[in-house]
Amino acid sequence: MIGVAPLCESCRRFDMQGDGYSCGAFPDGIPEEIIMGEHDHHKPFEGDGGLTFMPKEAGSLIGKAIEIVSAIMVRKAAQPGTVHTRADGSRWQKQADGTWRQR
Q1: Residue 20, helix vs strand vs coil
Q2: What is the residue-averaged pLDDT of the chain?
Q3: d(Cα 103, Cα 89) in Å, to the nearest integer?
Q4: In this structure, what DSSP letter does residue 21 have?
Q5: In whole angstroms, what is the distance from residue 52 CA to residue 43 CA?
Q6: Model-level pTM?
Q7: Which residue did the predictor score with more confidence, 52 or 63?
Q8: What single-letter DSSP state applies at residue 11?
Q9: Residues 21 and 29: beta-carbon distance below 8 Å
Q10: Which residues of 55-91 are buried (b: 16+ CB within 10 A; e: fewer)?
């Protein structure tokens, strides 16, 4: 299991159970594209039932700050060269062609 994207952790719908991550939009597990930060879930994603990111602190300055920082992290995660560490300790680097390679 990979680490959770900052956007997921700051979402009101997020739920971490056991070894997996789920939410109101994806009760059977959040897709890897969202977890890895390749898709900004402020925008719809296939299978989300119309439920997108909702900040835990919606309407507040803290909520807005969370949204801004999360959006920056999502863009950074989508760039080649980004490295993610999975829960098992393995490290994966995003390649220029959009694939991930274990380091």
Answers
A1: strand
A2: 78
A3: 11
A4: E
A5: 6
A6: 0.54
A7: 52
A8: B
A9: yes
A10: beeeeeeebeebbeebeebbeebbeeebebeeeeeee
Q: 3-state secondary structure string, 27-95?
A: CCCCCHHHHCCCCCCCCCCCCCCCCCCCECCCCCHHHHHHHHHHHHHHHHHCCCCCEEEECCCCEEEEC
d(CA 58, CA 61): 8
Give the whole-angstrom CA distance, residue 97 versus residue 44: 24
Q: What is the dihedral of CA 13, 18, 19, 21, to 10 degrees?
A: -10
Domain-by-domain residue ranges, the chain? 6-102
Section 53-77 average pLDDT: 71
Per the CB < 8 A criterion, the answer to whether 23 and 30 are in contact is yes
Please state, in angstroms and as integers, the Cα–Cα distance from residue 83 to each residue in 35, 39, 65, following that order: 13, 16, 24
Q: What's the confidence (pLDDT) of residue 101?
A: 82
φ, ψ at 76 (rounded to 5°): -65, -40
